[in-house]
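Figure 6 in text form: structure in, sequence out.
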């Protein structure tokens, strides 16, 4: 299950970076399997994120991106947020991370505040992604760094989730690559 989840997850993020609609097909499979894996690892924030949010958002993303496809390139548009929206993102992530972390702590989560941060940031990053903003990749990089740490701790404590840990390492590399690409293309789009 971990290998299939990881493979479809990598395919999803690569296709997202390439602005391909097929990202959402891979995303559905990945979200369902990853929710099961996270539940077994007692990472309830990750479980809820994938089962209750990512699965439905795959359909939303597919619909929105399909409406904004460039007819010639078959890729979605790219753009930047303004500074006010960026500030709101940071405040929202910080506040929601703290509050959700308190809830996860009460539920007995293995790493409540790290799990909370990755969950809250992922929710916001997905919204930013669906809206086709390049800033999504800055958020994904931070989420990926914390997720690599979280799954490293899980793996070194005796779990067999090596495929999940490797998936997050690949996500991090992809996010860095896509950040560079999207930033360049979004800047070019704003000059037109």
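Output sequence:
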């Amino acid at each position: 299950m971990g290998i299939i989840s990881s493979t479809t997850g990598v395919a999803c993020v690569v296709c997202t970076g390439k602005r391909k609609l097929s990202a959402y097909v891979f995303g559905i499979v990945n979200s369902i399997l990853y929710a099961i894996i996270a539940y077994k690892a007692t990472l309830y924030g990750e479980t809820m994120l994938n089962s209750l949010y990512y699965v439905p958002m795959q359909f939303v993303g597919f619909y929105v991106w399909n409406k904004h496809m460039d007819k010639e390139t078959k890729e979605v548009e790219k753009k930047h947020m303004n500074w006010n929206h960026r500030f709101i993102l940071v405040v929202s992530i910080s506040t929601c991370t703290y509050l959700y972390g308190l809830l996860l702590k009460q539920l007995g989560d293995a790493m409540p505040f790290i799990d909370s941060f990755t969950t809250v940031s992922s929710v916001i990053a997905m919204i930013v992604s669906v809206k086709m903003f390049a800033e999504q990749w800055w958020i994904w990089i931070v989420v990926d760094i914390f997720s690599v740490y979280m799954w490293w701790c899980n793996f070194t404590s005796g779990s067999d989730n090596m495929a999940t840990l490797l998936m997050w390492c690949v996500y991090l590399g992809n996010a860095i690559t896509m950040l560079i690409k999207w930033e360049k293309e979004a800047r070019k789009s704003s000059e037109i």
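Caption detail: The two ends are 45 Å apart (CA to CA).
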